[in-house]
């Protein structure tokens, strides 16, 4: 017993001593070094307030033992809009103010590089644009943005329309996990965006099969032992790569590289006229776009379906707006067009409010490439820096009554840098318009053609990896009886009021 007691005391002593040593060392680092940029330099910038937790462990256990949003919100309450912590072996500075997010992502972006765990870079592909900065990133970004720009999207509307119709038809009369149905849809939309609707079903099935193994390994412990999810995912990644190389070779042999995203990447040329990207780099970026497009869009679509169900009057108002659009498509006989999608004012606000409420990307990561001073605080070189989007989106100073789902708030544009669902600056999401288009089209067909009910409770949240309602929101969906509805005259005066107020 005595030996046990001595052992426990020694352990506690070692932990405290190393913590004190560690804290001093960090404080020491805080006093020295040059500054990469920032506001007026204070005499001796200090580290931001906050707790670095236990040596080595930091506050990782606290983060993982509770809702991550509660973890960040409680620290913001205690320390303010800039605070330090230590997570997953890395010292971090958290930034919960719009100005700080702008500083890191826009005005001083060159001082903060993107940072991802090495295992995740290997899984997606090290040449994918989100891992890079500088010239290579800039050139790639222009290509990706071009392939996702307004002209390309206009041409994609019929394809997105067809993908949505087919997803809903497959769901008709069944209970399905909304998240899974939406993942399938987002994958299909990703495929038509990348391959321009020219991919045969066999190839598509091959890509889908391998991609689903890759994503299962993405959030696993990176263990390369045969049989582990990570190992299987890396093997599937190689097969994906092989399939993409075959598609590129076939296009070259036919002399038709195409004007879709794949074609744009394949045909890109540097200033000297030589190909800008190798096939390997193209494949990394294609896998990267699929990855960036799928779970993000599917999670938001899942929340939209829940929010609409939870707010029946709003749903009726959206239904009325979409009924008018349906008339314009000859009662659904013609596909939607870009102009139709641009005319959905209330539906667009529902999407913005869903993006704010769900804030599925709660924060992003950067790493300081030099000692940086911000508002008198030091962000030491090598520290992770995390702009906290969700904290900003849920701050009552910027969004009154932030926990209320209220699309009306978007009748007025949010204050600058307070609404960042797609990030900001050089790495801001180039797929944001495509994602919104997909949501508009889905809502159109859902509310004009179907009814749905949530099966079981939808109040708990799970992370897969983005937050979604528990079990992916199981929903029973069925085609509506249009005749009965029209006769029923379900639009009340309240609903008409809502349409008027939302359309202003
Ligand atoms: C609701 C859906 C989506 C959300 C919420 C979302 C959110 C974001 C955010 C926050 C970033 C910036 C990350 C950072 O700064 O570290 C980002 C980057 C990116 N997103 Fe999205 N995204 C969505 C859909 C899409 C789609 C549909 C595509 C492509 C078809 C896409 C492609 C990308 C790419 C390629 C980047 C990296 C850009 C760069 O590093 O320059 N995203 N996204």
TrEMBL record:
Pathway: Plant hormone degradation; abscisic acid degradation. Gene3D superfamilies: Cytochrome P450 (1.10.630.10). Its EC number is 1.14.14.137. Keywords: Heme, Iron, Membrane, Metal-binding, Monooxygenase, Oxidoreductase, Signal, Transmembrane, Transmembrane helix. It is an enzyme of class 1 (oxidoreductase). Residues 481-490 have a biased composition (Basic and acidic residues). One of its GO terms (biological process) is sterol metabolic process. Heme binds at residue 429. Residues 481-504 are annotated as: Disordered. Coiled coil: none annotated. Residues 1-17 form the signal peptide. GO terms for cellular component: membrane. Its cofactor is heme. InterPro entries: Cyt_P450, Cyt_P450_CS, Cyt_P450_E_grp-I, Cyt_P450_sf. It catalyses: 2-cis-(+)-abscisate + reduced [NADPH--hemoprotein reductase] + O2 = (+)-8'-hydroxyabscisate + oxidized [NADPH--hemoprotein reductase] + H2O + H(+). One of its GO terms (molecular function) is iron ion binding. Involved in the oxidative degradation of abscisic acid. Belongs to the cytochrome P450 family. This is (+)-abscisic acid 8'-hydroxylase.
